[in-house]
Amino acid sequence: MISVENLKKSYGQKIALNGIDFNIERGEIFSLLGPNGAGKTSTIKILTGQLIPDEGIVKIMGRDVFSSRNFLRPRMGVMPEENNLYERLTVRNNLKFFCRLYEADFENMEKYLEAVGMLSEIDTPVKKLSRGMKQKILLVRSLLHEPEVLFLDEPTSGLDPASAASIHRLLEKLNEEGLTILLTSHDMEEVDRLSDRIAFLHDGSISALDHPTSLKLNHAEGQVDVLVRINGDLQEKRMDINSDSAAEDISRWIKEGKLASIHSCEPSLAEIFVDITGSELK
Ligand SMILES: Nc1ncnc2c1ncn2[C@@H]1O[C@H](COP(=O)(O)OP(=O)(O)OP(=O)(O)O)[C@@H](O)[C@H]1O
């Protein structure tokens, strides 16, 4: 669906992208995870034809992003990082304007507003909405023309957990219906929950790219947290799954009915990010 090859972009002396490569399959949710300044917005802007790279090839649905804009524009949805809604217009008029521009079905306005719990605000001027509400309107706007691929730049940054969760639910539903999604985030929980694959972006380079589970398994240190009943008390123990004595203890506790719970100790994506890049995911 998307292929990116040797993408480079500098702003004066500052190298924002230092030759990145990745492919996204149709139907995937692919995330670019990185701290501030990693190059996430530059990547999204190039992929959506808003910024010209210095070098590299970007193809979406097999077409070059820059020479096939007319073909790609109706097939791509973009939720930008910055709010660019018309503040004095109502939600309805903002969305109507976009519907006309993209020849989208007006009925989609209500359908998607309902999905993010914003239908009751349809006649409210955008300037009266909270930041989180504006984010939701930006998402609704990006979906009106029913794109095949959706680009989201930090879709839930600064949102309260309930608003973020409603956006996550909608994205998961749309993805189940076939939508391909590329999102950027520095929120590792969001990325962990949503993504089929994740690229760690750091200082303009991709330092790891894999499924979230594979990233975690490759960095797991083979330990489990065990909760066991000993002499009537619950005790928590961290055990090495590769040691014979741990295997013996655990199987004995299971037989004796003393094992209350057992969990693998996987590192978080934030810990893996630090491990790989040496930088915090802030
Ligand atoms: N218009 C610009 N002029 C100069 N430098 C820029 C410009 N846009 C981005 N940069 C620099 O390029 C680097 C990458 O920026 P970019 O916005 O792509 O990162 P990001 O990962 O999206 O960061 P954030 O999470 O803060 O949005 C940063 O060092 C940034 O300061």
Automatic annotation (TrEMBL):
SMART domains: AAA. Residues 2-228 form the ABC transporter domain. InterPro entries: AAA+_ATPase, ABC_transporter-like_ATP-bd, ABC_transporter_ATP-binding, P-loop_NTPase. CDD domains: ABC_DR_subfamily_A. It holds the Pfam family ABC_tran. Keywords: ATP-binding, Nucleotide-binding, Transport. One of its GO terms (molecular function) is ATP binding. PANTHER family: ABC TRANSPORTER ATP-BINDING PROTEIN, ABC TRANSPORTER, ATP-BINDING PROTEIN. This is ABC-2 type transport system ATP-binding protein.
